[in-house]
Amino acid sequence: MHVEHISFDRVFDVQEETGSFSFERGGWPVYGVSVPGMGIPQAGATYTVAFAEAGNWETVLGWRDLSATKVQLRQSAWQFAIQRLPYLYLLLPVPFGIALRFGGYLAALPVAALVLLPFAVMVRRLAWRNRWASQALQAGRPVSGPAMPSGWRAHLMWALAPLMFWQ
């Protein structure tokens, strides 16, 4: 995570409906910033912005106007989970039904758990990332803290989760 103070010297090309805008910072323009649902900064405002990748506006995790204390995150873990529920609805019945038909309940329950586990890992990962982004934005700098759990099980789940539920 990368935290940076951004001065919006001039804001232009504002499209309120889509949350898109362009701005000028220190005489250099930045075009096509899209942060739906997070509002449009006012000209002259200074924000602390948390990026997943330094300077990449497509990876904004959240921001905080330095004149206020409220942190705005791009997506909460609950929003993420609710948006991905249709995927579960589409993915779960097929393997669960096949396992139920050929192996009974004793085979179907572990299969269902294997489908639900990557979903739970993705939601947990996003909640963890949002917590650290929020703390970094409040502090105005990156904060150190415990890393996500490591080990072969965690690495396996982190590898499998994006294959099943896209971000």
Q: Count the beta strands.
A: 7
Oligomeric grouping of the chains: single chain
Q: What general outline do the C-alpha atoms trace? A: elongated
Q: Segments where pLDDT lies below 50 for 5+ residues? A: none
Indicate the proportion of strand residues: 15-25%
Name the features.
24% strand, 7 strands, elongated, 2 domains, 167 residues, alpha+beta, three-stranded antiparallel beta sheet
Structural summary, described in words:
This protein folds into two domains: 1-74; 76-167. The chain has four helices and seven strands, in the order βββββββαααα. It has 167 residues and is an alpha+beta fold. The protein starts with a strand and ends with a helix. Helix 1 runs antiparallel to helix 3, helix 2 packs antiparallel against helix 3 and helix 3 (105-139) crosses helix 4 (152-164). The chain has helices at 77-91, 93-103, 105-139, 152-164; strands spanning 2-7, 10-15, 20-25, 28-34, 46-51, 60-65, 71-73. The strands form two sheets. Strands 1-5-6-7 form a four-stranded antiparallel β-sheet, with helices on one face.
Summarize the structure.
This protein has 167 residues and is an alpha+beta fold. It is 44% helix and 24% strand. The chain folds into 2 domains: 1-74; 76-167.
